Structures
1.
Amino acid sequence: MNRQPTLPVLFVCGEIEDNNIDKKESQTWYSGIFNIMCWHVRKKWCAKNRMQLAELTPQLVTYSRKGPQDFCNYLLTASIPSIVKVLLVFRKDDQQMDILATAARRLGWSVSVAKNLEKAVELFQNRAHELVIIDRRGHHADEGDAICRAIISSPVYHNSTIIALVKKSYFMLDEKDDIVALNLLEKGFSRALLECSHEGIIINELVGIYTSSLLPRTQLSAAHALYLALDRCRDMVHVTNDKNIIQFQNKISEKLLGYKTEEMMGRNLSEIIYYENFPLIKQQLSKGREFEGNMNCRRKNNQMITINCRIIPFCTTLKKPTHYIYVYDTTYLSDNSAPISPVGGPSHTPFRPSVLNTRKPSDVRSSISEGRRRSSLQKLHTLQLEAPITKVITLLSNAAADTNSETAAQIDKAINILKTTELYVPHLKEDRATYSDPVVTDLVGALLASPRAAWESRRSSTDSAKLSTVKVIPSPANSRVQMKNFRGPQEIAEILDKSLDWNFEIFKLEMLTEKRPLVFLGLTIMNLYQVPAKLNCDEKTLQNWLAIIEHNYNSDNSYHNSTHAADVLQATARFMQSERLKEILEPLDEVAALIAAAAHDIDHPGRSSQFLCNANNRLAILYNDLSVLESHHAALTFKLSLSDDNVNIFKNLDQDAYKQLRQNVIDMILATEMTKHFEHLAKFMNFCSTRINDEQETYSDSLDMSVVLQPDNVILVKRMMIKCADVSNPTRPLKCCVEWARRIAEEYFSQTDEEKKLKMPVVMPMFDRMTCSIPKSQIGFVDYIINDMIEAWDVFIDMPEMVGYMRRNYDKWKKYNEQGISTLQDVEKLQQHPDMQIP
């Protein structure tokens, strides 16, 4: 009867004694152990079975093609060195050393001999031996221990196997309860080897040491090398278990999709990767077959990309797949997509949860003296937004640098044409630190979605058609004459003295003025900017204009009321104190910015444009569902201003100046529409990338002002100014930030309540007052909308306090979320703390 010797028999005997194994069987059996035998034993085995080593090669290839598991085993074992370097450290030559050296050489190993500590360390540093055998018998024990420690301390030491040669009596010297081998381990030895004069036994001991110590370590090193290659390869790779739970992702996945490794581990891959017919995939994979097709991958910013993917089943047993390997052809994407993450690396890392810096209040101003690192031009390039046109211009610019002057001139001309056409439809880059919570998705989606998307789901009921009907409220007669002492009581005057401070107490002013902060703050700021003189109108007319504008804000709105208008006006005025904007803006530009800020949300109904479209509101019909609210705000501003000479602040302007001013005000108000957010930001960042000299250290030094001062770019600056002012709530001191968050949440909840009551389409279904998490909505708003714009604006105007407050507030929202603070009631309870109270 045929029998196959077990692995221990092979190693003990060093040969196969059963000659009844035919050649075919021996080939099959040998293919499984081929790679774990040293070359000397393989050669001897082949000679015994009348085979050539070359004959085994085809069998090995066949073995390696059985599947990923077999091929992996081959890679690991094939990397094992054919020659093991052995260092023998003996005080003097004796029979035991000769037997060890002879046995090692018979195995094809390389042997070095040292007779003292210095020589042993010198040889080890030169050759980094995998195996070191130190004579520790008798009175050589202490010296052997010192040699062991010296080798371990060597700079080239890396998990070599160090063996203590001991007498048989060594294990009988101590008490029975002691485990003397532990003493060796504590001194640094890997194991003990009993002295023996029988060469065959020594050979088998060395083979055992090889398979139990040296082989696993070399395999582990090879595994690390394979892991490094997989982690650094240019194709995206995911490894899941049989339940599709992610076990591994490589670095290119983090770059392209934006999810950090800790965010991916333990998640089901189906949350990120989509395919139309997953049952078909499962059917093929369960049979051990590979699958290839196009997969839709959801990036962390919710953008979808389509990538060709091959799925390979991987078996650790012979029964069924235990793991699946997803390999995506992402070379082109990785070459042409800027990473979401500098997840580490550059001098500035985009703002996201893992890299936020917490600053103390005193640090906000002190950050100005930090060399203005945030003013570097590199910061603009690390922000998380780009447009296809930006990529095209970058490619053309690179090509122009490598071509002759005539061709370069043509490329530059093409670039200029591209910059002047409407090709800036941007998208978020991959890698944002975003949240899968539907509250965030609804918030950002509703802010950025075009109302046209709701056409098919509108109601035409009588009730909904009457919603948010605009009623122009004339200025009350007495409002024109009650402002002689417009600065009000001393307390109001003290607040208004700080009208250009970023920590301006807008809510205290709201309370002291009985919800009329726009008139008081507006007149103060506009006098600071000499608006009456620039418009050639008297102060009373300006006061009346502010009064009628404020009167047409809906005081019942929790957020979009005159306090919000005053807040945006104050932010705009603060921005215009920057040296950069003083260089750019003309006197009438400053006036237009202040007027647009004061009136940008006039007669806001407390409902979104998409709500009005769904309701068939007359404003949506009037403006064809395009920029409905913003168009209404701009139109009503001029309708009210021109309705009465007592409020007409434009009446003394010449026609050309009026037309220019009107155009600027309209453009800035329309710029507050969130559906154009990314377009405006992409254009702004594109022209800000134009520099005089690439060698300049700071952005301010290198910015080409001749480019900035071009008319189209000045318009972009003004758009960015009012946009940043409009959504600056997260960049204010914490208690103001929390109050604004409470107010906007209440307004969104109120809209959702009304939509449900009237059975209208719910624009933001997760903004339900019973289930919505306010901290999560704020975190997502910063991640998606605020961060990149504020970072870019800070670079442009040099205003670090905005970023300082934003980061601290962001950290606070994260902590509140972890503490379980979620609902309006939770936030209101939080505001009862003395440090958080609003007047």
2.
Amino acid sequence: MSLGQRISRAALQWPVSWLVNHKSLPENPITELQLDPQRPIVYALKTSSITDLMTLQQCCEDLGLPGPFTPLELNGQRLPRFVCLDRPPPLFGKRNKPLPFLQEFHQLLDLHTQDPQLDIQLVPVTLFWGRAPGREGEEASSWNIISSLAPNRLKKALIIMLKGRENLVRFSPPVSLRYMADKHGTDHAIAHKLARVARVHFGRQQLAATGPKLPNRHLLFGQLIESTIIQDAIRQEAIREGISEEKARKRALGYMDEIASDFSYRLIRIGEVVLGWLWNKLYRGLTVHGAERVRQLAQEGHEIVYVPCHRSHMDYLLLSYVIYHQGMVPPHIAAGINLNFWPAGPLFRRSGAFFIRRTFKGNPLYSTVFREYLNLLFAKGYSVEFFTEGGRSRTGRLLPPKTGMVAMTLQAMMRGLDRPVTFVPVYLGYEHVMEVNTYHKELQGSRKEKESFLQVIGILRKLRNYGRGFVNFGEPLHLSGYLNEHAPQWREHIGQEDKPQWLGDTVGKLAEQLMTRINSAAAVNGLTLSAVALLSSERHALTRDELEAQIATYLTLLRQVPYGPFNTIPDNSAAELLDQAIELNKFDVSEDKLGQIISLDRYQAILLTYYRNNILHLLAMPALVAALIERCEGITENEIVARCVDIYPLIKTELFLHYDEESLPELVSALLANLQQQELIQLRDGGFWVNPSNQMRLLLLAESIQETLQRYAIVLTRVLAQPGVEAEQLESDAMMMAERLGTLHGINAPEFFDQKLFTTLIHTLRHEGYLDPACKPDIGRFQALADNILPLLSHKVQRTIRACCPSC
């Protein structure tokens, strides 16, 4: 460090420490970026700034990294630990000489020819002082820009005074200079190339963090109303309704005002503070996984479309907060028109929400305005968020997807977007959903309450600790790659207004794939595991030792035969997870001389089905294998595989499982090996048997799939009793039988009687060829499927189902 830098650093030490509040991304770069503290680290920055370097120094000290002022000695040479590409312009005159960054890059590369063991990690670091992108039609203010734009010293002083509390230090994945030297050499041309790549990187980082300028509603409405498509729609509306074109035009403008967001960066900043307080008030912590993948997509210029599951009204706030907190641009969010009430509506609108009606039917002008608005958002580069389920799940399961927004996204791409479009599935999980009591009442037949200001006040009055929240970003789906595989001819239709024939089928499959990827990112926690175990027990009660052992069984299965790379399993022990679940006060905990008993009363048992259903899909196949062994002792591995292949399509469609049928033999083999390792089953004479000493653990595992199999058995039995029954009658009879079964056998799960599940099942039976379009069965295949499923149920349940169909 030069003498001038040392003097500046000493003079600025107190002002910087007082004015600057930094936040780093990622929060743990050593782990998340796989930095090796044992290897030399050099930082690359866009601009030479003593305040940037001082902020970075403090940030590195907090993270356990060597700071930019930390001495670096290599091969007997004392070297700077940072390289800067630009020098800020002077207050007066022109910049007299460039920074020697090319020489520094070359020197670092050349050291690798002298020492074959050397491998310097070059870590790009971007410092943001405020992230407001500005608004269309407005010039950026002097202080509302980030430091990478190389402001002069006076502007930088203003930035630090006004934006010092908004500082974000973004670490990027390291570049191995050993790789660069070995692959490309160490001459000056490579140093030039490294500098060019760094400049592009910093530019992309800026765009990823700030996004494009926010839309100006007045200018946006002008662009929309003058578009050819909306002009044609206005003329058609005037003819259809028998009104003047001017009146139809005003109607279109009214729709725009109803739909369009009015994004406010200032409100986002206020919201970050308020929501930070709210999460601390409501939850004991937020756990976020996979954000780095999304940041990389944003940096690469992808058009990001977030597709989260929908559990609660908190989802809107939670996801926007997390996205902004992770250094990305909050999306424009498709929100139901039912949320456009005062004061929530204006706040949501200023937070990026645009409002959508439940149906477009019978209103082509509204449909056209909405589609053109969405197309314009994509064209301008704004990220978008929508809930493919349409509404909140009342049961904790994913709902069948609504395809409207998926179709409109695909059509927007077909109009010729010049950026890759990528869907990012998001799993949102809570240890407590604040609306869960309301969901239960609605499932019991109560009318859905209309959202209102009084309802918001009621929720705020109930604020208390709701446990933990989970946000998992799942496997991204690149739309062009998906279309290349499933609709290879799609590029022929770019720019055409007519819908291609393949669109409907492709959109349906795409929506199903998005739901599958949401489920693949599920977060497991102590409450969900406890709920699975307790609801599988006969009287919803277990001793603490039994419950701990069962949670440990689930954990071992999920860790050693993982569902996939995107779902998350806690590192805690079964005892620690159970303690966390008990703290939520959802269980009855009693104690006698033999120890603790943990149980559920009838009401809590119903509510906890919601949390069980959040992760039921992760345990569905282990439970099916356990049920086959528990009910068919001595069954061989080949028989287990054959029955799983037969039953799996039904479970796959209902629970959005990601396995393909070709992988089932390998999966079954891994599950059997794990159950043997846990000593739940034994292999004797070529068949699998229950281990008597651990029978209860296997039985509880098998029981978790029983309600699903019972519903299948109801439909199969009803069809076999009357092969010509119509679909509508079949659904009605199945629901009636399910209610009878639930009453007689104490089945409390609200989804057990859900018509949507029976509709999905009948659709799957048709798709798999068990039923024809008229609901007439292929008797041979249908009977074989029934023979595989019915023996997995208890004799009492089988008798009840048959009693409901006396002609069976």
